[in-house]
Input
Amino acid sequence: MKSKDRVLDAIIECGIVAVVRGQSSARIHSAIDAALEGGINVIEVTFTVPNALEIIRQLASSVGDNVILGAGTVLTAEMAEDAITAGAQFVVSPNTSIPVIEVAKTHEVPVFPGALTPTEVVVAWQAGADIVKIFPANVMGPAYLKDLHGPLPQVKFMPTGGVNLDTARAYLENGAVALGVGGDLINKQLMEEGRFSEITERARKFKEIISDFRKQA
Output
């Protein structure tokens, strides 16, 4: 397993965390392959996926070393332990759970707890968050991220929830170090219909936004 710093650097370098929510293990594998073909190698499998732990375990043993595999919707310390044991290289939560953060810190695995208000952000950061996931980001929008970033420039932010091709650039401009992208990238309907080439095309477009922003920054 890569060191914590290398995993964190790779996630920020990619700039996109592809959030996978699907029903079929085979289709999830195909969707991940499609995202990889489009240049996105950071994959988050959420615990809302049936048999999520088994899928994480399978992926951990089958994907290449260039893939950074994480677990999402991690709500308890036990879930964090199980995910890391199964092979998750980072842990993401929709909320700020101190026990989850502590488990990740013990295992030296990056942890991205969810927060929305300034108080929640500071609590998460002071508890040891490596990146704070602003969720649900679409409720407040990119301008809100700028407002948070002003007094909290030391905090690394990853907006998640409703992030799409139209808003991605604005989130980056307002302080995001990475973007959590679910339905606008690894879309359930595209997965169910086997339209994996469209997932690849979306991945390429997101990566172009990341690349263009960083060239101009």
In short: The CA atoms of residues 140 and 167 lie 12 Å apart.
